[in-house]
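Example 3.2
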Amino acid sequence: MNMPLKDVDKANSELDLLQKTNLNFIGRGVRFLREKNQVTQQELEWYSGVSQNQISFIESGKTNFKMDCITRIAGAFDLDLCSFIEVCRLAPH
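Structure, written as tokens:
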């Protein structure tokens, strides 16, 4: 059974919005943790091995990221992935 084209477009649009929301959610959390711990993006690059450019893009919600990247950032703050996600969820807007 094929989905009508307008339904496919709507589903793709909703998926794009969901992905952008998730990017913003994680990005807010990264920035919150970084600022709370008084760490620059360059220092976080050193601690995590994730480039400063990538960290900047994550914080601004302008890029997709791999789970490995987020795991390394979480580890830089001595957090496991579940704790990191919870902090991101609770980070101020």
